[in-house]
Amino acid sequence: MIPLIQLHNLEKSFPAGPSRTYVLRRIELEVREGEFLTIMGPSGSGKSTLLSIIAMLDHSWTGEYFFHGNPVHQMNSRQRAEMNKRNMGFVFQSYHLIDDLTVAENLDMPLSYRDVKKSERMALVADTLDRFHMVGKKDLFPSQLSGGQQQLVGIARAVIASPKLILADEPTGNLHSVQGKEIMELFKKLNDEGTTIIQVTHSEQNAGYGHRTIELADGWIVK
């Protein structure tokens, strides 16, 4: 069976005077479908950069990346964007909600990229608002929400379209412990149902929900 993700000799660097500074070095990684992978390591080790590359949001890297056997390294930015929209949900550390859309409209965004009828989209948004206890917030804009509430909207947006892969960068960083536990339990349930999850976290507790942990240090996979 083809792994969902295969990275071969993946590197990211930028020029620094006469030499180069490396953010990621010779990354070799396979992620199977249905796996729950945790990426850990100190600040500045390359964790968020690796997640952004897997999400096809960062295009300035070298090496080979296959997603479901498709050579991402040979795709143009439009093809990568399409692949991302159809297969992935991303939970950003800094929310990345669209400021001039309401909570309900932000949740509808990922559904609008897929062939989902308007009536089905409205029903899915209503179900998701209910699931995340945000029905009363549906007509508010991101600026009217607390950091924790914005994080919940970001997580809801990532999972609403039942993506094949969820990528989460410190998903519970802005939530209090009860909310954080609920989100990790939700991820575990989605993973049990077949969704592949890759999370970046500093929390050993959150890492415990995964099947496997890799550690980065100075851009290298060290464990």
Q: Order of strands across the widest beta sheet? A: 6-7-8-3-9-10
Structurally, the number of domains stands at 1
Overall SS class: alpha/beta
Name of the CATH superfamily: P-loop containing nucleotide triphosphate hydrolases
What integer is the average pLDDT?
91
Biggest β-sheet: count, sense, barrel?
6 strands, mixed
Radius of gyration: 18 Å
Please indicate the percent range of residues in DSSP E strands (runs of 2 or more). 25-35%
Q: Level of helix content?
A: 25-40%
Q: Shape, please?
A: globular
| CATH-defined fold name | Rossmann fold
Total strand segments: 10
Count of alpha/pi helices: 7
Termini, distance in Å? Answer: 25 Å
SSE sequence, one letter per element: EEEHEEHEHHHEHEHEE
The CATH level-2 architecture is identified as: 3-Layer(aba) Sandwich
CATH class: Alpha Beta
Return residue spans where pLDDT drops below 50 for at least 5 consecutive residues: none
Question: Which descriptors would you attach to this protein?
Answer:
6-stranded mixed beta sheet, alpha/beta, 4-stranded antiparallel beta sheet, Rossmann fold, 7 helices
Précis, in short:
With 223 residues, the chain is α/β, with parallel strands linked by helices.
SSE blueprint and pairings:
Blueprint: E1 5-16, E2 19-31, E3 36-40, H1 47-54, E4 62-67, E5 70-71, H2 77-87, E6 88-91, H3 103-112, H4 118-131, H5 147-159, E7 165-169, H6 177-192, E8 196-200, H7 204-207, E9 212-217, E10 220-221
Parallel strand pairs: 3-8, 3-9, 6-7, 7-8
Antiparallel strand pairs: 1-2, 1-4, 4-5, 9-10
Helix pairs in contact: 3-4, 3-5
